[in-house]
TrEMBL record:
PROSITE patterns: ABC_TRANSPORTER_1, ABC_TRANSPORTER_2. It holds the Pfam family ABC_tran. Residues 6-246 form the ABC transporter domain. The keyword Kinase does not apply. This is ABC transporter domain-containing protein. Belongs to the ABC transporter superfamily. Keywords: ATP-binding, Nucleotide-binding, Transport. Gene3D superfamilies: P-loop containing nucleotide triphosphate hydrolases. CDD domains: ABC_NikE_OppD_transporters (cd03257). The keyword Coiled coil does not apply. InterPro entries: AAA+_ATPase, ABC_transp_ATP-bind, ABC_transporter-like_ATP-bd, ABC_transporter-like_CS, P-loop_NTPase.
Length: 260
């Protein structure tokens, strides 16, 4: 059996007296993408925050790219290395991009948080801006000068410029028009294959999850109630909640479950 890039076993997370995640387990090999789907409050984003080291679990084990997430706080060096190997693409790029920094400064800061020297990394910044469909001179502009879809491309470039092993994409197309969603998803799929990135793609949109994923995990009230291949989940769902999601929301306007 291949070594897992992401392995979560019996994960539990509580906020005060409220249990948010219950006995969550999943495994991803290098290069695989898992789509995590569920309604708001199902625990999707909390799971993502555990994987990137923002939220500490209180039960179970989480190993990502050979790092034990529960021990990261004991070593600043390990935590720094982990943050470079595991990246999150946020849902709202506007709030995550500093309005006082140019795009070039933001990408330079990802590469070197201390000095953020744009000139030193200019070629690499230009390459990644062009790779996500923006002109190289976008590095001289500020976030407010871009559309929502363009800001999402900047956020994707910031995450991928470090060439991480694992990427968590948290509802990254939810605020975009359907035509822009398609462009972003096609671009993500191409880059993921080029870099052999392992990805968790979080969404409430079943059609989006199907279009980018190898596996699907369905979350309900803090638990994974069903997990399997895309083909199995969409053609032969076993759990009543999965069936309800498929019946209630076969896809956002402009999509179908056979989108690709």
């Amino acid at each position: 059996m291949n070594t897992a890039m992401v392995e979560v076993n019996s994960l539990g997370v509580s906020f005060g007296s409220t249990r948010v995640l219950h006995d969550v387990s999943l495994r991803l090999e290098a290069g695989q993408t898992i789509g995590v789907v569920g309604e708001s409050g199902s625990g999707k984003s909390t799971l993502a925050k555990v994987l990137v080291g923002i939220v500490a679990p209180d039960a179970g084990s989480v190993v990502v790219d050979a790092f034990d997430v529960r021990t990261l706080g004991h070593s600043q060096r390990a935590a720094f290395r982990y943050r470079r190997r595991v990246q999150m693409i946020p849902q709202d790029p506007f709030s995550s991009l500093s309005p006082r920094r140019t795009v070039g400064q933001t990408l330079a800061e990802a590469l070197d948080p201390v000095w953020a020297n744009v000139r030193r990394f200019e070629d690499r910044i230009a390459f990644w801006l062009e790779r996500v469909g923006l002109p190289a001179d976008a590095m001289n502009r500020y976030p407010h000068e871009f559309s929502g879809g363009q800001r999402q491309r900047v956020a994707i470039a910031r995450s991928l410029i470090l060439e991480p092993s694992v990427v968590i994409a948290d509802e990254i197309t939810s605020a975009l028009d359907v035509s822009v969603q398609v462009q972003i998803l096609e671009m993500i799929a191409e880059i993921k294959d080029e870099l052999n990135v392992t990805m968790m793609f979080i969404s409430h949109n079943l059609a989006v999850v199907q279009s980018v994923s190898d596996m699907v995990a369905v979350m309900y009230q803090g638990e994974i109630v069903e997990i399997g291949s895309v083909e199995q989940i969409y053609s032969d769902p076993q759990h009543w909640y999965t069936k309800r999601l498929l019946d209630a929301d076969p896809g956002a306007p402009g999509f179908s479950l056979e989108w690709r």
